[in-house]
Write a structure and sequence with these properties.
eight-stranded mixed β-sheet; metal-binding; Plant_2OG-oxidoreductases; about 20% strand; Fe2OG dioxygenase domain-containing protein; 17 strands; alpha+beta; oxidoreductase activity, acting on paired donors, with incorporation or reduction of molecular oxygen; 11 helices; Jelly Rolls; oxidoreductase; single chain
């Protein structure tokens, strides 16, 4: 249990030959732990075992696909057709891509980062009002992934806000509500354009995915991840390898690297160094709906010992009541049978978010 684990006294020894120890109390966030004076060694509960034989992550920034949103939504059939083909390749071969010329003002994206950072700078008592209790609480503030189930804690604090179909927002910081409301609306428009293109790239009518999965009332969750500097980054993990539960996830960050994606069995470092762009990854419900044509991408977050990384994620999924299964038009008897069983999105969300997070094991449970 988070409280019983983190409210107990942790003892740290600055060196092997020094018997001075420091007691840290009320550490219910990584941020508070990281800001503790003289912190040199992380508590054992944060020690994450990496595969010692795993090679270093690769840097292949230029290889990551880039989708021009204006071409994808263009009235010019040639431009749009080419963009749809590029989107198909990005979803099929990568499950990950950048989006440029999306129409969301850069000033708004910077303001979202700024206000998100201000939230974590609030006094502890202001943040604790939103301490997580239930999976679908409109606003949840917490640490690790699922602190009630995690054996190893992750070097991450988070804020999760449901912004659609009903909009919610913390009362503080000042101005956060207006910024978040506008950002959630703008990002939904980007997702709508991407989903139309994906629907066409699958050989379906452009509104097929939207209508079948009831995206007008689709779940949209705004997530801010805070990864403070870690004195032993080689022993900790910000977030372990996993795939996302929804359809598409949009991400921006404060310029500090740490995101890695798995591509053809190898881990790649990802930098969001393209100005005013979104990083987008495909998620589990898209893999199910496409009957495996598009794979949800496995990704993780690593930490460093010098800089705080802040990432802002917008997770977009079907309606909670939608039953997600391979699109009937993509299934063809024995030639192309359904590869996943039908499941209500709400049930899938509870299954993934209510347990430990380990790779794509949740998706494996619905495979035929």
């Amino acid at each position: 249990m988070l409280r019983s684990l983190l409210l107990k006294t942790f003892t740290f020894y600055p060196s092997h030959d020094h018997d001075t120890h420091i007691h840290f109390l009320n550490m219910n966030s990584v941020q508070a732990l990281a800001e503790s004076p003289n912190l040199i060694h992380i508590p054992s509960i944060y020690t994450y075992s990496l595969n010692s034989n795993e090679p270093p992550a690769l840097d292949l920034q230029d290889a990551i696909p880039t989708i021009d949103f204006t071409s994808l939504t263009s009235a010019d059939p040639g431009l749009r057709s080419r963009a749809i083909r590029e989107l198909d390749i990005a979803c099929k071969d990568w499950g990950f891509f950048r989006v440029v010329n999306h129409g969301v003002p850069e000033s708004l994206m910077k303001m979202v980062i700024e206000k998100s950072n201000e939230f974590f700078d609030l006094r502890d008592e202001e943040k604790k009002v939103y301490e997580e209790k239930g999976l679908l609480d409109p606003i949840r503030y917490g640490t690790s992934f699922n602190s009630k189930k995690d054996d190893i804690f992750y070097w991450r604090d988070f804020l999760k806000v449901i912004v659609h179909p009903e909009f919610h927002c913390p009362n503080n910081p000042l101005g956060f509500r207006d910024v978040l409301l506008e950002y959630s609306k703008r990002t939904r428009e980007v997702v709508k354009g991407l989903v139309k293109g994906i629907s066409l790239s699958l050989g379906l009518d452009q509104s097929y995915v939207d209508e079948t999965l009831q995206l007008e009332s689709g779940l949209q969750i705004f997530v801010v991840n805070l990864y403070p500097p870690c004195p032993q980054p080689e022993l900790a993990m910000g977030m372990p390898p996993h795939s996302d539960h929804g359809l598409l996830t949009l991400l921006i960050n404060n310029g500090v690297g740490g995101l890695q994606i798995k591509h053809k069995g190898e881990w790649l470092n990802v930098r969001n160094d393209l100005p005013n762009s979104f990083l987008v990854n495909t998620a589990d419900q898209l893999e199910i709906f496409s009957n495996g044509r598009y794979k949800s991408v496995e990704h993780r977050a690593i930490v460093n010992n010098a800089l705080t990384r802040l990432s802002v994620v917008v997770a977009n999924g079907p309606s909670l009541d939608a039953v997600v299964e391979p699109a009937c038009k993509l299934v063809n008897g024995e030639i192309c049978p359904p590869k996943y069983i039908p499941m209500k999105y709400m049930e899938y969300l509870e299954m993934q978010q209510g347990n430990k997070i380990v790779g794509k094991t949740c998706l494996d449970r619905v495979r035929v």
